[in-house]
Amino acid sequence: MKLRELTLADAPWCAELEQLLFPGDSPWSVEEFQSEITHVLTKYFGVEISGRLVGYAGMAVLGPPDDAECEIRTIAVDPTYQGRGVGKLFMDAFTRIADAQDAPIFLEVRTDNEPAMALYHSYGFATIGVRKGYYMPSGADAYTMLRPRLSERDRTNP
For the N-acetyltransferase domain, which residue ranges apply (predicted)? Predict the structure, then answer.
């Protein structure tokens, strides 16, 4: 498995996978991916296995450098490759970026996505709220989760 930064050439594949995984929740278009991938405040990564892109993930780094906050925008893995550690590669990259800036990380996750929640909990995230009807047009609820900044965490936990 190889983690790499996404390029504009990856946007069509990302939009295709988005359609497959999130058909009832306003999947992002090619143009939305292009905008996110090139935005100065975001970091977008892909994972390749045997030269094939099998997942993508993005995080924004917001606020001033001395008080930054991170927000995971999306994580998606081809169903054929789920459960093989692809999400862990993304989370390792995101937590390294956030910890280097002593930034907390926020995210939203569907309340019925137990595998994702288990992954996030393993990285020290805690549920801090519920957003009713967050995903549109399905109306599915989301948990808001937070991983505190490094300086606020017990150093024995991730």
Answer: 1-150
3-state secondary structure of 99: helix
**How many other CB atoms are there within 10 angstroms of residue 157's CB atom?**
9
CA-CA-CA-CA torsion for 138, 95, 146, 45, nearest 10 degrees?
A: -20
Contact status, residue 24 vs residue 54, Cβ threshold 8 Å: no
Cα 137–Cα 106–Cα 45 angle in degrees, nearest 5: 80
Strand order in the sheet with 2-5: 2-5, 42-49, 52-62, 69-77, 105-110, 140-147, 126-135
Angstrom CA distances, 6 to 11, 24, 54, 58, 79, stand at 8, 25, 12, 9, 19
The confidence score (pLDDT) of residue 135 equals: 86
- Measured CA to CA, the distance from residue 18 to residue 56 in angstroms comes to 10
pTM: 0.92
Task: Using alpha carbons, select from 105, 93, 95 the residue that is nearest to residue 144.
Answer: 105
Domains and CATH numbers, the chain: 2-152 (3.40.630.30)
Q: Which helix (H) or strand (E) holds 97?
A: helix 86-100
